[in-house]
Amino acid sequence: MSHYAQLDENNMIVFVIAAKSDHKEDEFTESTGNVWKQTSYNTYGGVHYTDGEPSADQSKALRFNYAGIGFTYDENRDAFIPPQPYASWVLDEDTCLWVAPIAYPAEGVHVWDEEAGDWVEVTDENS
After folding, report:
1. pLDDT in tens, 53-76
2. Which DSSP category does 93 fall into?
3. Which long-range contacts (CB under 8 A, 24 or more apart) does 73-78 make?
4. DSSP SS3 for 72
5. How far apart are CA 87 and CA 100, in angstroms?
6. Which residues have CB under 8 Å from 118's CB, separation 6+?
7. Is residue 27's pLDDT more than 60?
8. What is the pLDDT of residue 20?
9. Which residues touch 51 (CB under 8 Å, ≥6 apart)?
10. What residues contact residue 115 under an 8 Å CB cut-off, 6+ apart?
11. pLDDT tens digits along 89-105
12. Mean pLDDT on 112-120
């Protein structure tokens, strides 16, 4: 089984399908008139995973991330990039994932507070 993402005129992902592995993205583009790009369900941050562990064969890592509706396809990077969660977060060029300007704390459960520009611990009082 292979997965394919349909792009709109702005390279935004509008649809993702599963299809037989013998299909090629050009076949979908030719038959529908829409642009399609193959995406790997097991690829995240530029790493291909098998059973939750990095795969021995990293040639299967396709376009950095599994495409989702609302993601953008970046032609220059040949990558699917998720929507930016907060204005202060920056794109990690090695993973094509958004990264907070401050590392996630090692302990506890936290949520990002864009106004404060920091992680806020989730407690019983503020959950």
Report:
1. 999 999 999 999 999 999 999 999
2. T
3. 73/5, 73/7, 73/11, 73/12, 73/13, 73/37, 74/11, 75/11
4. strand
5. 10
6. 102, 112
7. yes
8. 78
9. none
10. none
11. 999 999 999 999 999 99
12. 97
In single-letter form, the type of residue at position 58 comes to: Q
Residue with the two structure tokens 């991330």:
65
Residue 100 CA to residue 10 CA, distance in Å, equals: 26
Q: Rounded CA gap, 48 and 10, in Å?
A: 27
Of 60, 74, 7, give the one whose Cα is nearest residue 37.
7
Q: What is the pTM for the complete model shown?
A: 0.87
Cite the DSSP H helix spans in the chain. 25-32
Listed in sequence order, the residues at least 6 apart from 77 whose beta carbon sits closer than 8 Å to its beta carbon are 64, 93, 96
Q: Burial-class residue 80 by CB neighbours within 10 Å (0-12, 13-18, 19+).
A: buried
The mean predicted confidence, pLDDT, of the chain is: 92
